[in-house]
Structures are given as structure tokens and as C-alpha cells.
Design goal:
The complex is a heterodimer of chains A (307) and B (334). Chain A is mostly helical and 307 residues long. Chain A contains twelve helices and no strands. The chains are: A mainly alpha (307), B mainly alpha (334).
Chain lengths: 307, 334
């Protein structure tokens, strides 16, 4: 009895060492890729802006100066431009730079919350389906099929319109169309893991289903979940901006990048900067996230790296 | 055949689920569609009640659902609350515009993505590969609607080279037997109309096609690289087959199989993407129809269009599977 109690402990300790070096290897591989590091730096910068945005903003993003309506950005050699408003002013004379800085928070909050919500719900459904198999698996996977039958963006638009405007409703609408990919991948992983020796061993020792899922399976599916999350984040940020652009997003006084683009569209004939700068902001943050995602995939999935 | 039959049977529960979800759209919204649409117009409560009764919205939910499905199966998606026109009629009017846009974008994106992805894989880790993959990564990061706005600002407004709105100029006369303007102008041999249609198609197709091409190119590259590591490719090379033949006979065919699935999925994605693109380019298709329905709070119409989109997508998935079996005969024996 004593032996059977100590052996797993010993194994645990032995396992700990390679796990640490594995983490080191992943971080090293990631940092070795200059492009992935650049992506992470871009994301970190935007994260910082999203926290400090209101402090960094030189002006109140909502204050209107009708004299400065559609004032151009500096650097074009136009007289009306002033360094006080380096990116120019919008149709109500509001400072575009300040609005961009403050709008960063909304974009990232929506992106991160949607990923967290859809990853947890989707992974749980996938894990349950893969673990219990049989009828439950069938039902859950048909649910995924049904969901996949709708074009994602259209479903998000429909749900967001039905739920009404607001930050939480936007996150719900986007999460409802993002969870399926997690379910499919996690289910496939769990199906292959559940027959492994260490799962059988844990079961033989009387571990509960919940313990097996949380302690033995989750760590093993974490890598694919992280890869999907980093690659999906960009899509979610773009979708959120699309919904704001179409006017079914947050719809409040808080500036959003998509909303700014939508306002700017009406003035594209004589004030291109209104619609250009928010688009650049979205593109840079999404590029950062995508580069980070590619790097993370290479670091976490050695099989893919060799290609 | 058996495989395909099974595949089609599997879509029955999916269609059932889709019908439940679209049915729920107008029942999860706070209030009901009638109240939402007319609450600010000062219509009396009695009148609203009469409208609810006419639409069957006062019946118990299960009865409403059965009515909904049985009508939908006969192709009756109900009536638009705003225009009172049958929804199916509205959809059929606009479906050619959406399909024309989606198909043209699909052709453009595949024509760009296949050679680019292949070239990138064959020239792996060279300058060409880096250029193509950098382009693809940048392309994925640009929001579609922003590309559209930039193109309108630059090409249509600033340079005035191409039109930025609509499908065809009002001044151009064209008989429309099919509703697909490209086909119509070819059928009636109306060259000015053909030219005008192509010019109107250019920007929206570019907008929708670029985004899709970047996804596909990246996927083609990794699929080709995956196949090139397989034993049979090594054997083909070892037996002295010329590289061109190795690529043509062994790599391409096998690498294209997963690509077919992806392309099928992208086609569904293009239909979804059309919603945004149509709004930007004032393209009179189904995407714009659904957005306008949302703006006018006509949720019965929203419900109808969403259902139609889902059914269209299911059909595309089945077609993809058929092509898949055709490309890979092994599947049908599983």
C-alpha cells in the first residue's frame, strides 16, 4: 500500500522537471522567432493603451469643436492642421487620436472576453462529448453542425440585433458563433487522450470523471486551445468592428473603431482620414495578434514546426 | 453513393435544428416583432393585436413552430412586415446579385490562392515564399469592410476609374431573364451592359476576394508541404521521376483534397462576407436586404433571410462532399 502511494508521487516529481524545460523550450522557440515577438510586442502595446487610453488621450474624446470640423491631420501641408490634433478631427470636430486611444479598450475587452467565453464553453462541450462518447457525443456534435450551418457573421449580426445594443450583448453575439471550433478540436483531442495509459491508470485508482477531465485531459488540450484562441482573436476583433460598423454593436457614446469607420464613410469624399485611421488601428492590432498566433502555433506544436 | 446518401440523411437533424434556431429569432427578442416595429408609430393596441392575430403570433409556441415549418417546406417564408411582400419573392429577387458577387469573388480568390499557395510551398523558405506569406498574413489582418471603403475612396472617388456603388448604371438597358447580369448581357449579346456590369463588379469582388484568397493560400501552402513529406512522394522522386511529374501526379492531387473542403467552407464564408460588402457597395443582394430589415426592425424578414442563408450553406456543404468523393475515390469505400 505504501509503495502504491509513493510511486505516483515520485512520478509526479520526475514529470515536473521535463515539464519545466518544455515550458522553457516553448518560450525560447517563441522568442527566437522575431516575427512572433514583434506580434507579441504589438499586442502588449495595445493592451497597455487599452488600460491607459483615457489617460493618454490628449483631449476628451467626446468634446466637440465645431470650428475644427473635418480638420485634416498634420503632415499634409494643410493650413488647418495643428499638432494639437495630430490625426485631425471628425465631422463633429472631435479629436480622432483621442477617440482611437479610448476606443482601444472596447476592442480588446470585446476580443478577449469573447475568446474567454467561447473557449470555455466550447472546450467544455467538446470535452464532455469526447469523454462520454455515445448518444451525448452525437447530440452535441449535431448541435455544432447546426451552428456551423449559419454564416458566422450573419448569425452574429442577427443575434446582436435581436438582443439590442450594448457591450455584453455584443460579446454574447460574437461568442455564440465562436465556440464551435473549440468543441470540434477539443473533442478530437479528448477522444485520443482518453485511451492513454495514464488516463486508464487514473481511472483504475478511482479518480472521478471531473478529476480526470480537469487534471489529466485539460493540460493536454491546452496547447490547441491556446493556438485557436490566438488565431481567432483577430477574427473576433474584426467581427466586432464589423458589427459596430453596421450599427448593431455597442451604440453608445463610447467611441469604437468600427463606429468611427462607419461615421467616416459618409465623409470619404473630402475627409479620408476619418475612415482611414480606425482601419489602420484595427489592422495593426489584428496583425499583431495573428503574428503572435502563428508563433505560438510553431512553439506549441513541434510537428507543424518541422514543415 | 451510399456515403453520399448517409451524408444527406445526416443533414436532416441539422435542418431541423436550423429551423428551431431561426424560429427562435423572433421569440428571443424583447417584446414581439409587431411591437418592435410599430411601437413608435402610434398604432393602437387593438390594431397591433389584429396584426398579431393575422400573423398567428397569438397562438401557442409549438403550434406556431409547426405552422412555420410546414409553410417553410412549401417555400412560404411568410411576409415582410414592412413591405407586405412575400419574403420568398424578396429573396428570389436578390439572390442572383448575391450569388453573382460571391461566385465571382470565389473564382478570383481561388485563381489567386491556388498558384500562390503552391508557389510558396514549392519555393519554401525563399524570398518568393516570404513575400507571398507576408502578403497573406497582411491580407488576413485587414478588415474586409475597410478594404472596401479604401477601394471606394481611392479607385472610385479619387481616381474615378470604376464605379463604387450598385450593379449597373440606370442608364444602361438590359433585359434580365435570369437576374445574373453577366449571363443576361451575354445571352442578349449586350456588350455595353456586359462592360458596365464587369466594371461594377470589380471593386466588390476584389474586396471580398482578397480576404478569402489569403486564407486559402496559406492553407494550400501547408497542405502541399504536408503531402511533400509523404513516403509516396519520396518514392516517386527516388525512382527518378521528373520533379514536374512528381508535383503534377502525386503532390497536387493529394494536396488538393483538403483544399476542396476548405474552399467549400470559404464559399459559405463568402456568402456571409457578402452581407458587409453589399452594404458598403450598395449592392442590391440578400446581405443588404437583411441589414435593411434589421434597420427597419422587420424581424420576420430577418428570420426568413437567415433561414435561407443557412439552407444555402447546407446545400453548398453537400455539394462540397460530392466533389470530395469525386476527387478522392477512397472516401466512398469507407
Amino acid at each position: 500500500m505504501a509503495a502504491s502511494l509513493t510511486t505516483p508521487l515520485l512520478q509526479d516529481r520526475e514529470l515536473l522537471a521535463p515539464q519545466q524545460s518544455e515550458l522553457k523550450r516553448i518560450v525560447r522557440t517563441f522568442l527566437l522567432s522575431k516575427i512572433a515577438t514583434l506580434g507579441a510586442l504589438i499586442f502588449a502595446l495595445f493592451l497597455l493603451i487599452s488600460i491607459l487610453g483615457p489617460v493618454l488621450a490628449p483631449h476628451d474624446p467626446a468634446s466637440q469643436h465645431l470650428k475644427l470640423r473635418l480638420a485634416p491631420p498634420v503632415g499634409l501641408g494643410r493650413e488647418e492642421a495643428s499638432w494639437e490634433y495630430p490625426l485631425g478631427n471628425d465631422n463633429l470636430g472631435r479629436d480622432i487620436l483621442s477617440r482611437l486611444l479610448v476606443g482601444t479598450r472596447v476592442s480588446l475587452v470585446v476580443g478577449v472576453s469573447t475568446i474567454l467565453l467561447s473557449a470555455s464553453v466550447g472546450s467544455l462541450i467538446g470535452a464532455v462529448a469526447g469523454f462520454y462518447r455515445g448518444a451525448l457525443d452525437n447530440v452535441l456534435m449535431r448541435l455544432v453542425d447546426i451552428w456551423l450551418a449559419f454564416p458566422g457573421l450573419l448569425l452574429s449580426i442577427g443575434i446582436a440585433a435581436a438582443l439590442g445594443p450594448g457591450l455584453v450583448n455584443l460579446i454574447i453575439a460574437l461568442s455564440l458563433t465562436s465556440w464551435t471550433v473549440y468543441s470540434r478540436v477539443v473533442r478530437a483531442e479528448v477522444l485520443s487522450i482518453r485511451e492513454r495509459d495514464y488516463v486508464l491508470a487514473a481511472r483504475a485508482m478511482g479518480a472521478s470523471d471531473l478529476r480526470i477531465i480537469l487534471r489529466h485531459m485539460l493540460p493536454n488540450v491546452l496547447a490547441p486551445i491556446m493556438i485557436i484562441s490566438s488565431l481567432r482573436m483577430g477574427t473576433v476583433i474584426i467581427s466586432a468592428a464589423s458589427l459596430d460598423f453596421l450599427g448593431v454593436g455597442i451604440q453608445s457614446l463610447v467611441p469604437t473603431w468600427g463606429g468611427m469607420l462607419s461615421d467616416g464613410r459618409e465623409f470619404m469624399r473630402n475627409a479620408w482620414w476619418l475612415a482611414t485611421f480606425p482601419g489602420i488601428a484595427i489592422s495593426i492590432v489584428v496583425l499583431g495578434v495573428n503574428l503572435m498566433g502563428d508563433g505560438l502555433r510553431d512553439a506549441l506544436d513541434p510537428g507543424l514546426r518541422q514543415r | 453513393m451510399k456515403y453520399l446518401l448517409g451524408r444527406i440523411l445526416l443533414t436532416i437533424p441539422v435542418i431541423f435544428g436550423v429551423s428551431v434556431i431561426t424560429f427562435s429569432i423572433i421569440h428571443v427578442i424583447p417584446g414581439d416583432p409587431i411591437q418592435l416595429m410599430f411601437r413608435e408609430s402610434g398604432v393602437s393596441e387593438e390594431h397591433l393585436q389584429a396584426m398579431r392575430h393575422a400573423l398567428g403570433l397569438d397562438l401557442p409556441l409549438p403550434v406556431q413552430y409547426v405552422n412555420y415549418v410546414s409553410r417553410a417546406m412549401r417555400g412560404d417564408f411568410g411576409q415582410s412586415l414592412q413591405s407586405q411582400q412575400p419574403i420568398m419573392e424578396l429573396i428570389l429577387e436578390r439572390i442572383p446579385a448575391t450569388l453573382e458577387l460571391a461566385l465571382a469573388s470565389f473564382i478570383l480568390s481561388t485563381a489567386i490562392a491556388l498558384p500562390m499557395g503552391l508557389l510558396s510551398a514549392l519555393k519554401r523558405n525563399t524570398f518568393i515564399d516570404y513575400i507571398i506569406m507576408t502578403g497573406a498574413t497582411l491580407g488576413i489582418s485587414l478588415p474586409t469592410f475597410w478594404i472596401g471603403i479604401l477601394l471606394i475612396m481611392l479607385v472610385a472617388v479619387k481616381l474615378g476609374w470604376l464605379p463604387g456603388f450598385g450593379r449597373i448604371d440606370y442608364a444602361v438597358h438590359l433585359q434580365r431573364p435570369t437576374g445574373f447580369l453577366l449571363i443576361d448581357s451575354l445571352l442578349t449579346w449586350n456588350i455595353p451592359a456586359l462592360k458596365n456590369t464587369l466594371m461594377h463588379l470589380a471593386l466588390p469582388v476584389l474586396t471580398l476576394g482578397i480576404g478569402s484568397a489569403t486564407f486559402t493560400a496559406r492553407f494550400v501552402r501547408s497542405s502541399v508541404l504536408e503531402v511533400m513529406r509523404q513516403d509516396y512522394v519520396v518514392v516517386a522522386r527516388a525512382k527518378g521521376l521528373r520533379e514536374r511529374l512528381v508535383i503534377a501526379r502525386h503532390v497536387l492531387r493529394n494536396a488538393l483534397m483538403p483544399v476542396v473542403t476548405l474552399i467549400g467552407l470559404r464559399m459559405g464564408g463568402l456568402l456571409g462576407g457578402a452581407v458587409v460588402t453589399e452594404t458598403i457597395f450598395a449592392w442590391p443582394g440578400m446581405g443588404r436586404l437583411v441589414i435593411q430589415a434589421i434597420y427597419s426592425r422587420d424581424f420576420v424578414l430577418v428570420q426568413g433571410v437567415v433561414l435561407f442563408f443557412a439552407l444555402l450553406r447546407i446545400t453548398i456543404n453537400i455539394l462540397t462532399d460530392i466533389i470530395y468523393v469525386w476527387v478522392d475515390p477512397r472516401i466512398s469505400h469507407i
